[in-house]
Structures are given as C-alpha cells and as structure tokens.
# Entry
Amino acid sequence: MRKVGIVMGSDSDLPVIKKATDQLKKLEIPFEVHIYSAHRTPAEARDFALNARKNGFGVIIAAAGMAAHLAGALAANTTLPVIGIPCAGPVLDGLDALLSTVQMPTGIPVATVAVGGGANAALLAAQILAVEDAELAAQLDAKRAADAAAVLEKDAGVLERI
Ligand code: RP5
# Structure
C-alpha cells in the first residue's frame, strides 16, 4: 500500500496531526510525519512534494495555521492529491488558515477539511487509497457501520439522559 505523507508547518500543529495519525493507525495505513514549513523551510517542503510519488506516497496531508500556505505550496510541486487541514491560531480561530488553505487558484487543487479536521483528513486519505484497495474499502465500510450503530445506540438511550 502507498504511504500517507503528513506534513505540518510547526510542532504546535501536533495536536491536530495526532487526530490524523490515530485514525491511520487504526486502519493500519503506513505514514510518515514531517515538520516542514512553507515559509521557514521552503526548500525541504518543496523537495518532499517533488519526490513524494517516487518515494512511495499516494496522498499528502498538510496541516498549517495562520497564513497557511503549506498545503498549496506542496500541491504546487506534486500531482498527488493534497489534503489541507487549517489549524486554529491565536487570533482568528482558524478562519485565516481556512481561507489560506481553501482558496486555491484553478489548476492546483487542495482538498480542504474543517479547521482542526485531522480525523477527516485521515479518513479522506484512506478513501483515496481505497479506490484501488478492496480490503481497505471494506474496513472503511465497517467503520461507517460501527459509527452508525453508535449513533443509534445513543438514540435509543437519549430519553434517560434528559
Ligand atoms: C504556521 O504558523 C504553523 O503551521 C502554525 O500553525 C503557525 C504557528 O507556528 P508556531 O509559531 O507555533 O511555530 O506556519
């Protein structure tokens, strides 16, 4: 199976990345994690994206906050799918990062998840890899069924909680 490449702009993004790696571990999907910044280490970020396909990656997840250009900068240097996670910063609660990540120019797409959406980023990455992996697709179907069952269990018990 191809790996998921995870890049964060700063170690302060780790709590968001942990949500993604927790999901990937549960699904037994191989991944690598790096701290490369579009602004502080642009050469490393560029090299990672340029070489990602030949290094065995199938999809990239990029998390960054504030002027969050990381996902777009990676996407500019690869045609692998790039999933952007906007991270909440100290001033605008992530709206700055959301707009910086999602508003990509035509030709260089970034699939942007919710602010802090580490789990969904991992699940979307899994769904991309599952296009060509029936076993992984079955795991994702089973997770959906388990999640639905958990909601219905709560539905059955909701009156007792009121
Ligand atoms: C972004 O700036 C990082 O992704 C992080 O979310 C934000 C703040 O970085 P630090 O100042 O905490 O390193 O590049």
